[in-house]
From TrEMBL:
Residues 126-251 form the Transposase DDE domain. It comes from the Bacteria. InterPro entries: Tnp_DDE_dom (IPR025668). It comes from Acinetobacter guillouiae NIPH 991. This is Transposase DDE domain-containing protein. The lineage of its organism: Bacteria, Pseudomonadati, Pseudomonadota, Gammaproteobacteria, Moraxellales. It holds the Pfam family DDE_Tnp_1_6.
Amino acid sequence: MRMKEDHMKNGQLKAGYNVQISTEKQIIVNYSIHQTSNDLTTLKFHLNQLKTLYGEEQFQQIENITADAGYGSCENYEYLEEQDITAYIKYPSFDQERKCKNSRTKQQNLKDRQKLYYNEVEDYYVCPMGQRMTKVGEKQTKSTTGYIQQISLYEAQRCEGCPLRGSCHSARGNRRIERSHQLEGYRLAIRERLLSEPGIIQRKRRSIEVEPVFGHIKSNRNFKRFTMRGLKMVDLEFGLHALAHNMRKMAA
């Protein structure tokens, strides 16, 4: 996988592990080791492991979960909804949307499909030129975890000769967009939740909850590389570091 520490700056691939932790007041209550660089696919496994460790009754007491945009996916939002857990998890474009909204020199991006008007009753979008983009089909996508997502396809009708063609899209033919209406519903709910007063508090809390734990283990304890090999031994090695961190934290 590609590491954050890339001294050669060439995106070279290295053997490594993805460590996930859950914390409460900077105490590590669960950790899991993954052989994937993508955080999206780690959340369900991590929480199911937490349920196994502490039992169904304790797991049901979890009211909310806060995580960064790396975990924001339709699959994870749906899973947390099924578990009756409130998700304070950004979707990938949340910060960019906020940055553009607060910018004094905003420039309209006609290629941004999020800004297209959608008529929910008649199920069509409106392109920047004002013409309808009607539904032309559907497809399914399947993630590496087996999660199936329904995608709707929409297409404009007369893009040839349009004065906005160059700034609207660069593909041949008419403009087409793909939308998961389930994900769009989650995005609207998540945006409203994150911008609420409890959401702002939760976002601030994440920066002083999980990040300092990783910072302490990596910088103060100088643990930046695993000395063991194999998933089982790496799991054991990090477990010892997590135990040492918790003991030091509780003794402070």
